[in-house]
Amino acid sequence: MLIEFSVGNYRSFKDVVTLSMVAADEATGNDELDKNNVFKVNQNFSLLKSAAIYGANASGKSNLILALYFMQSFVINSSKLQITDKINLEKFRLSSETEDKPSFFKIVFHLDNKIYEYSFEVTQERVISEGLSCTPKTRKTNIFSREKDIIKYSKSLLKGKDVKDLTKKNTLFLSIAAQFNDPLAGKILLWFSRLKIISGSQFENLRQLSLDYLSREPNLKNEIVFLIKKLDLSIKDMSVEVGRTSLDNFHKDIPDRVKNKEFRLDNYIYNSIETYHEKYDLEGRIIGLESFQMNKHESRGTQKIFALLAPVLSALKKSEVLIIDELDSLLHPLMAIAIIGLFNSKITNPKNAQLIFATHDVNLLSNQLFRRDQIWFTEKNRQEATDLYSLVEFDIDNNASFEQDYIQGRYGAIPFIGDLSKVIGD
After folding, report:
1. What tens digit of pLDDT does each residue of 237-248 get?
2. pTM of full prediction above 0.85
3. What is each CA distance from 95 to 21, 53, 297, in whole angstroms?
4. What is the DSSP annotation of 51-116?
């Protein structure tokens, strides 16, 4: 499970900021939320099941999620880089102070009853530093540390000696060790691969991701159909068929734009999703069901709900961390609340999966839905650098009206709109 994530000198983040999923003692007070929204890791601390990130447009919400995505991608893929390849990194560009400094990434997570802390500093040209430590109980032990090309490692890395000299300046030692089948490095890379980071606004990518889930996990179909029927979308039943077939089975003139899409290089994901609505006679009596094509006849909102449910249910079943940018896009607030409620529940989330999402929807800012430590804000300062802070940092009552106070600017992180009265000339 994710404990915290830190980033600095990356995109709109100049200084290091930290998103923490550790439950704060001062946020307690609502027995129902304390019971459902939090789970105990050990005697020392508990973690949150969800976190919402608010902020004005261009304040850095998406950049925080992009930072997580960069760290995940670099850990998984850096071993594939050639020595001449540049690292695809964008530093904070609005300060001379950060021009010659590396970007910083750190993640702390709980795995197999141990706490791991992994971090690295990078420029576009090379890895400056890298380190991994583990806390089995109370005492932290270093697994390896790196300063440029100087790497020190413990016996915990069985392949350390084999891969030390194979680590290039622009690749991560952890990634190379995993590539050479080091058991511990491989286990940590697997944890990174189970971070599910998706965009709620890039609808086509989300739809294809969900089809990919369904093609690999056919048991999700029945659960998605069950939920769709419960969400008051007037859909009484559904049929879902998803599969994979080779592109060779299609006409030789299939467009290149289809062949070249990343998710279709080796296999073509095909689908047939039909929804069924009740049909009535002149007296309003139900006479049967009429079928519709999901992608052709249902609303974009209904299509998004369907597309979201596959990664949501998969995360709940596998105890994964799901990160969604713009969760509320195209969704009615009650639909978003329903999805969040699946995570904030002992019944539907017994394996303690975690949901982190960025949103503008103030309807979700409720003390009946979130504890104060579950609500985060991004705001840019005068130098256009993003700060990240939690509602728990404010001296307010747990029963305060979060939504009203936010709209009134008490917590910051809202847009300051100038006088628009003269936007149209004479």
Report:
1. 888 877 665 545
2. yes
3. 30, 25, 50
4. EEEEE-TTSSHHHHHHHHHHHHHHHHHGGG--TTPPP------S-GGGTTS-EEEEEEEEETTEEE
